[in-house]
Structures are given as C-alpha cells and as structure tokens.
Amino acid sequence: MRANRRKNTGPEITLRRALREAGLSGYRLQWKVPGRPDIAYPGRKVAIFVNGCFWHMCPRCNLPLPRSNQDYWIPKLRRNKERDSEKREALEETGWTVITVWECEIRTEIEAVVGRIAHELDGRSKEL
Q: What is the pLDDT of residues 56-100, one digit of tens each?
C-alpha cells in the first residue's frame, strides 16, 4: 500500500490536464481547508475530490470486495467512505460546493466531467 499515492495520481493528472485544456485553470492543489480536496477553486469555493473506484467503493463500478483478509479490508473500505462523507459535510457547512469525480468517469467520460465542473464554476461565479 505504500505505492498508493495521496496526490498526483494518474486520474488526477488526467483531470487537471483536461481542465487546463478547457480553460479552467486557476485551481489549487491540496488546498488547506477541511478534507484537503485534490483540486480546489478557492475564490469560488468549489472543491473536487478525485476518488479511486476501489479505495472509495465506487457506486458505479460496484467492484467486489477482496476475498482474502476481509477482516481488514471491509472495515478499511467502510472507514474510507465514512471519511469521504465527513469531508464533504465539513466543506459544505462552510459554504463550499463539493464535486466527487470517480476514476472510471475520468477514463470513460472526461468531457462530461469537465462540463459538470465548468457548469458548477459558472454558477458559483454568478453568486459572488
């Protein structure tokens, strides 16, 4: 598990590249707010979490749980989901909009993901 990185993962880099190509630069990485979102637009209070399908139990992929050492893996993966919910709630309580992007979405429908983020950023800039 040491090889699993917290930041600058492949899906994160792919999403950041797509955001820059769409003219949505100006984001910050690992911004110092509750939950440390992977990508943040602090001026618009938009936080983006890029979740790996296995580690965060993607509802779209519905991957099977590991067969071995389930006493370790089941509580571990459930804690990850609980932590994700806590991060989301903490940010939303302080007025942030939270977008969760799944690894499988980045692989298969990156344009739609960028469109969803752009739509949210447009909405947030009109509020300010």
A: 999 999 899 889 999 999 999 999 999 999 999 999 999 999 999
Helix residue ranges per DSSP H, 1-128: 10-21, 70-93, 103-108, 110-127
CB of 125 within 8 A of CB of 97? no
- Name all domains of the chain by residue range, CATH numbers in brackets: 10-121 (3.40.960.10)
Cα 33-60-85 angle, rounded to 5 deg: 30
98-104-105-106 Cα dihedral, nearest 10 degrees: 90
Q: What are the beta bridge partners of residue 99?
A: 48
Which structure tokens are listed for 28?
Answer: 């910050």
